[in-house]
Amino acid sequence: MQEAVSPKDRFVTVYGRKPVLEALADDRLEVDKVMLADNARGPAAQEILNAAARRGVPVQRASGQRVKVLAGNGKQDQGVLADVVATRMRTLTSALSTGRLPDSVLLLDGITTPANVGMILRAATAAGIGGIVVPRRGVASIDPLVVKASAGVAFHAPILKAVTAGEAAGDLRSAGYRLFGMDAGARDTLFTANFPRRVAFVMGGETAGLSPEVAKQVHGWVSIPMAGGVESLNVATAAAVLCFELVRRGSH
User: Fold this and answer.
1) What ranges make up the beta strands (E) of the chain?
2) pLDDT digits (tens, 9 = 90+) for 31-54
3) Does position 1 have pLDDT exceeding 50, yes or no?
4) How far apart are CA 14 and CA 124, in angstroms?
5) How many CB atoms lie within 10 A of CB 213?
6) How many whole angstroms separate alpha carbon 236 and alpha carbon 196?
7) What is the pTM of this model?
8) Which terminus of the chain, N or C, has less C-beta within 10 A?
9) Within the chain, what is the greatest distance between any pair of CA atoms?
C-alpha cells in the first residue's frame, strides 16, 4: 500500500508579501500555487497577481482566516502564501522503504529556534549529508524564517519528515542505523570515535538537549572538545562541525 503524502511533506509554504514575491521571482523554484485572501486588494495584491501570471502560477482566493490557518502564522501572513515544491523533501517512512538509504543522517529533536533549523539545513546540505529528519512536532516548522536562515537552501535540502523525533529514532534503529547523541560530557569525542557505516546523529534542543524518549534510544554519545573555558556550542554550530567532520572522514 502506497503511503499517502501530505501537502506539508511536498511543499515549503512561505507567507507574507515579500517572501512570496521572492519565491515567484526565482525561476529556479517551482511554485505550485499562490493563495490570496479575498480581502487583499490594491497595488500590493496586484503585484503578486502580476508576478504569479508571469510564471503561470495559479492563484486561489480564500478567506483571510483560511490563509492564516494554512500559513500557520496569524500575525505575519499578510493575507498571502505560496506553496513551493521542495524537490528533495519526502517522508522518512518513504525513504526507509526504498532501501537506498544515506549512510549518515541528522535527526532534529526539540530545536525550536527557526534560525538554528535553517542554519542546520544549510550546513548539512553543503556537507552532502543524505538526510535531515525534521519532525512535525517539537521542531520549528519550515517557514520563511527558516528559509531565510538557510539562505534559501531549505527549498533544496534533503529533508525527511516524521511525526516525532522519538518515532523517527525508533524507525531509524529498525532500519539498522546506530544513533549517537551529542553531549559535552561524553568521553568519546567526535574526532576520535569510531562510527559504523550507517549512522544517525541526534541534535538536541537549545536548552533541554535530547528528549527523554530519544535519549533512551541512542547507542552512544560523543562530545566536541572545548578549550578556553567554553562549555558548549550553539546547536547549529555543533551540527556544522559534525557534518564537516564526516566530510573529512569521507564517511557520508
Assistant:
1) 11-15, 31-37, 59-62, 80-85, 90-91, 104-109, 131-135, 159-162, 178-182, 199-204, 220-222
2) 999 999 999 889 999 999 999 999
3) no
4) 21
5) 15
6) 23
7) 0.90
8) N
9) 62
| 42 alpha carbon, distance to own chain's centre | 35
Strand ranges of the sheet holding 80-85, from the earlier edge strand across to the other edge: 11-15, 80-85, 31-37, 59-62
Neighbouring residues of 71: CB distance < 8 A, sequence distance ≥ 6:
13, 15, 77, 81
Q: Give the C-alpha separation, 83 to 231, whole Å.
A: 41
Quick: pLDDT tens for 105-141: 999 999 999 999 999 999 999 999 999 999 999 999 9
Cα of 90 vs its chain's centroid, Å: 11
DSSP letters, 30-53, are -EEEEEEETT--HHHHHHHHHHHH
- Residue 2's pLDDT band, with cuts at 50, 70 and 90, is very low
Angle, helix 235-249 to helix 114-126, in steps of 10 degrees: 10
